[in-house]
Design brief:
Pfam families: OpgC_C. The protein has 393 residues and is an all-alpha fold. The chain contains 15 helices and 2 strands. It has one domain (13-375). A two-stranded parallel sheet has the order 1-2.
Length: 393
């Protein structure tokens, strides 16, 4: 049984920093075909910013809600979780409404009704009542608007995770792994509606990443000392290098025919394929046991620009979705550039302008939100405590 620990601690800016980097990567990736998408980390391995984002969400959930849960304030902790769920629900509905409005306006003004066809957008035209019901139920799975519904499910699962974690962290992790395994074996997913099929971000599989992040957050909060294995570190580095060679070299087409289950379970994003999961864990292991965390611990403070993004995750993410839709419309339908991130003079100029304008908007929002926060009663002292890690030998 885990013992209660303090509800208060200095903010760990390293979490905000990596969350900010993930937000930037997601924004760049969500404008199809732009040149700068070539340089996000999905181009150098098997996982991408979405996995990092969910892992950090699990860590943040552990820091925000678990201390109260352990100290006998479980109803308050659950209430705060439900409040956050409500905030996410409103954010999802509003982002979908504005995103669809932008596509609809472009379809009318540019006389391109085909804009309302890709990424399941045609349902809002073909079956508006079903589409509206799906939007309200979070089952309308359309591109760029499907990660927040999964996050809502993660938070709804969080009380159960905390109950198991209170008994033993390994119990919560084991139950999470069992659910991930069962989902992959029996193809369990929440049904999408009105479109057929399941959720792109399958909650039954993505909860494993969230739970791993939760366990990491608890260990960070307790200040656990974790000693690395030099053999495991070398294996993780080797796996990252092999993954980079595989992806950068585009060796997918050179693979011999493999059974369908290998591709689905091994590489599929919806099912958190084992090779994608291994890449995420290897990346985390290498970073955690490198000098990077100690360097960031000394360097970062509340005024760091990327930390500001991570500290205001939801509004920054919300704006990034709206801006990425705008960038998509401008790039492909106003300037008629192809959905192909290859370099040309015209695409480089436009992509630089779109990404640059988007970054100004995202950082501007983060600065504005920080400026609007009350200055009294807030601690912005750099976090110096956390998981103590020994260097790999």
């Amino acid at each position: 049984m885990l013992q209660p620990f303090s509800n208060t601690m200095p903010r760990d800016y390293r979490i905000d920093f990596f969350r900010g980097l993930a937000l930037l990567s997601i924004f760049v990736n969500h404008i199809p075909g732009n040149f700068y998408a070539n340089f996000t980390h999905r181009n150098f391995g098997l996982s991408d910013a979405a996995e990092v984002f969910v892992l950090l969400a699990g860590m943040s959930a552990a820091l925000a809600f678990f201390p109260r849960f352990l100290s006998g304030q479980a109803p308050l902790s659950v209430g705060l979780i439900l409040k956050r769920v409500g905030t996410l629900y409103v954010a999802q509905l509003s982002s979908v409404a504005i995103g669809f409005a932008l596509y609809a306006a472009a379809a009318v003004l540019l006389e391109k009704p085909e804009l309302m066809v890709p990424d399941e957008r045609h349902w809002i035209m073909d079956e508006p009542l079903k589409a509206m019901a799906g939007i309200g139920a979070l089952t309308y799975q359309t591109g760029n608007f499907n990660i927040l519904p999964m996050y809502v499910c993660m938070l709804l699962m969080l009380p159960a995770i905390m109950v198991l974690a209170r008994i033993r962290l390994s119990l919560a992790l084991g139950a999470s792994f069992a659910l991930w395994l069962a989902a992959n074996i029996f193809r369990l997913s929440l049904p999408a509606y009105p479109a057929p099929g399941g959720w792109f971000f399958n909650p039954f599989t993505w909860q494993l990443i969230f739970t791993i992040g939760f366990v990491m957050g608890v260990k960070l909060r307790r200040g656990d000392v974790v000693k690395p294995s030099s053999a495991l570190y070398a294996l993780a580095v080797g796996y990252l290098v092999l993954s980079a060679v595989l992806v950068v070299g585009a060796f997918w087409d050179r693979f011999p025919p493999l059974p369908q289950w290998v591709w689905l379970t091994g590489f599929d994003k919806s099912w958190v394929g084992v090779f994608r999961l291994a890449h995420l864990l290897a990346l985390v292991y290498v970073i955690v046991f490198s000098p990077v965390p100690r360097f960031l611990q000394q360097w970062l403070d509340a005024d760091n620009w990327i930390v500001r993004l991570g500290r205001n995750t939801l509004p920054v993410f919300w704006l990034s979705v709206v801006l990425s839709v705008t960038g998509h419309i401008i790039r492909e339908n106003v300037f008629l550039l192809p959905n192909d991130p290859t370099l040309s003079a015209s695409s480089l100029v436009l992509d630089t302008m779109l990404i640059g304008a988007g970054l100004v908007g995202l950082f501007g929002l983060a600065f504005l939100l920080d400026w609007m926060k009350p200055r009294t009663g807030r601690s912005f002292q750099p976090q110096r405590a956390g998981v103590s890690v020994a260097p790999a030998e």
